[in-house]
Batch of 3 targets.
Target 1
Amino acid sequence: MSTTQMMKGILDGCLLAIIKDREVYGYELAEQLEMYGFDSLSEGTIYPLLLRMQKEELVTSTRKKSTAGPKRKYYSLTKKGEQELGKFLERWNYLQVNVNRVLKHETATDQFPERE
Amino acid sequence: MSTTQMMKGILDGCLLAIIKDREVYGYELAEQLEMYGFDSLSEGTIYPLLLRMQKEELVTSTRKKSTAGPKRKYYSLTKKGEQELGKFLERWNYLQVNVNRVLKHETATDQFPERE
DNA sequence: AAACAATACCTTGCATTACAAGATATACAG
DNA sequence: CTGTATATCTTGTAATGCAAGGTATTGTTT
């Protein structure tokens, strides 16, 4: 078990959430995620993910000049991307509720939790 | 994106949590997880996971007669398993906090959240 | 100009793991 | 003896985070 395994299928939702807030470029996203408390994520993780999401038409990109270095590729959400973000939020919430229920040993049908 | 991707690295922690509570056998775990709200997980998921955890000495197993059907393999946690469960709880908490921070667009260094 | 560092993007190959599909075995009911 | 429910395991596939390595651009230093 490691933290990276727990990121699977969650990281893309996080990227969508950040991109929805404002236009971001890939290199910046790694820094952003660190600010949110994650261990630094390598570019080998983020770039393939962005390319995949663009292929799936969840995001679009436009190249803009950088102050220093090659052009940046800024991403923004499409309508489809917003819908996907919505679905992710649902799934994430669902997951949180269920896992926390397991950890507390409360079944989904517990209607009257016992009090001490 | 799918729910199954989000389960990676989380399911084993859930199994450890259930097993810690009481001795359980594999076939039962699938039913248990459904009770906790998860979509039914196939045995093709659970058995390999249990075997791996036993190999890693996180759980031990004893065979006991069943009322109907072949012998059941009951699992219990080892000391190492309890430690691993502890580590999982930390990682899970860490993940929850960070993801929810991203979704709210609050950085880890936001000390004074704005009020409206 | 040449060399270097920082910025920025991308590709290849590997390890992990949930899962479908299928195989095997036991016990009991009809 | 046949069928059904119980119970476990194996094989192969798909998804994806990541390390490692590669390329290109700009500004700074020598």
Note: Strands of chain B lie at 24-25, 59-64, 72-77.
Target 2
Amino acid sequence: MLAFAILELLHRKPLSGYELKKRFGGSIVFFWKANHSQIYPQLRRMEEDGLVVSSRVTHQWRPTKRVYAITPKGEQMLRAWLVEKPKIQAVKDEMILKAFAFNLISADEAASQLTHHQKLHEQRLDVYLKTRRQLEQRHRDLAETTDPIVFWNAIALEHCISFERMYIEWCKWALARQNEFLSRTAASANAKKAEGSASDNRMTGLGSAEP
Amino acid sequence: MLAFAILELLHRKPLSGYELKKRFGGSIVFFWKANHSQIYPQLRRMEEDGLVVSSRVTHQWRPTKRVYAITPKGEQMLRAWLVEKPKIQAVKDEMILKAFAFNLISADEAASQLTHHQKLHEQRLDVYLKTRRQLEQRHRDLAETTDPIVFWNAIALEHCISFERMYIEWCKWALARQNEFLSRTAASANAKKAEGSASDNRMTGLGSAEP
DNA sequence: TCTGCCATGTAACAAGTTACATGATTGA
DNA sequence: TCAATCATGTAACTTGTTACATGGCAGA
């Protein structure tokens, strides 16, 4: 799939491996990421397959670079792939995987993980919002654009923004639920203590919310 | 990370490779997925490392299975990993990658992709909601539970639900935006036609919305 | 008899990560 | 002089996917 991601970018403009790498994972192409160690060999293979052609571009001040451009065959492949229905992807999120077993760590640690992750997603949201503002500045009103490239850029970007907002809200919600849980279990632990039985759940350590 | 996902499940209950495989990607553990061809060798390696121990369980009716249980060392590793702060993950979504270049296909095809994906996510949401209902049935009111395992289950599940809802909303939103875009560009194309200039953008083919 | 579930494995391949390696120019 | 940016590559390793392979039992 990296091949298609590359073709998408080269369709807009010929680029070097270095320039491709910079675009992936930042500046608009937030939803795809690749290392240079993947990109360079991939470009070679794509050239062998006739999907792209390269030419050396020499600058006086800078190292010579190899700039790749899409071929008609490459464009054909790209279009064929675009109309294929993608399968739904399996979600794989390390943070959620951890949260699933947060009963094994202290409430403090769990809360710390959640707030930390909330911050990370807030930071990324800021980057996205900044990008959207830049898009808006360059194209007056996004809701009025007639440029299909800009239009679909904005659609894809909006997905990234929605995802981050959702994630942040989930972190906040989980923290609120946790506080409720703690006051509930603290209450029942106290009740049990009064009865003389010990409670060994680890969801303690965080100040409980007001009753 | 597969190792940790396995440890999380084994901490709850000893399981065979086959049972682990069934749990990943379905029934609660929606946020992690693995093939049996990964799981079996992984379990072997984990046993070598002393993170799990296996025992053969023979049934009279069924094939003998190898059931794995977590060791104290495995539990220690798991806890250590749970408190590590995970890095924020790069988003990688094939559908969004495609949408980014939908200017290269017809509006009909683009709309078809979006509605198809919306359906897929609606189906998955249904599965999640069903699971939540089952959880609620077994544990009366989730908002009242004092079982930390059930509690964090519900927190993780809620993330999956939010994600699907967000995705569905994005699909709907994108389709609505596209309709607006089409009526806008149809209008400007007509205007240009009246001037005698040709327009070669491919965002046509779908009936435009009322002006 | 045939499908589906239980149960476990290997092998080949594709994709992704991390580290090693080089070397020029530009600005602080 | 030192860090950063430009620019490209390889190698070793880890992960993940797909296909191949086997075999018993249960129920339609």
Note: The CA atoms of residues 23 and 29 of chain A lie 6 Å apart.
Target 3
Amino acid sequence: MGNWHKLTRDFYDRPTLDVARDLIGKILVHNRRGVVTSGVIVEVEAYIGESDPACHAAPGPTARNAPMYGRPGHAYVYLNYGIHSMMNIVTEAIGQPAAVLIRSLDPLEGSAVMRRRRSRKVKGRRAGGGRILPDHDLCRGPGNLTMAMGITLADNCADLLGDCLFVEDRRLPRHEISWSPRLGIRVGTEHPWRVFVVEHAAVSGSTGRSRRATR
DNA sequence: CGTTCGATGCACT
DNA sequence: GTGCATCGAACGT
């Protein structure tokens, strides 16, 4: 299991906005007992420090946000709305709480597995609207992404230099990126800390909120 | 096209 | 008890 080109600790031990920008175009990989799912990162958001009101570290250290204060290059996964796991990557030095939320991927490997996970029933309701999802919808949005990748609270605190959950550098062609305010938050909207690939079908949010036909 | 709203678990006040 | 870094169904225009 050594033929991956994993990002090293130094990559994550940097200013969060730089890490966020540089994560675009990299590959997020989840390897669960040999079942591999992966995708190109096309949309992320930065959450930076106790002075960022939207950051979970805003109230200071708590039991939940402890991973954000820890070593860079680890996962911070938490449950939102009782339903969705949110996948973050811890950045910056120890004691400096910050992370990058992974919002959307363009699926690369394991799309069949992703589709199966997305169509699982959740408390009677069928996820994914019951329709056959196109690839670019499988990991579109942070809740959909974790469901498709099989990322759960069990992945909280995972070391991204390990073999289960990590980011690979494949030096794909450059994407055109853009910055915007973060989505779905009530405070901290003044910061343009969301980065995304322009005009990409797998990106969530305003430009693609309503159904688009194809790509 | 748009807006509203329920589901669902848990950290935090 | 309150409020989410969401999603998609249901309904209104």
Note: Residues 56, 59, 62-65, 78-84, 122-123, 125, 210 of chain A lie near DNA strand B (CB under 10 Å from a C1').
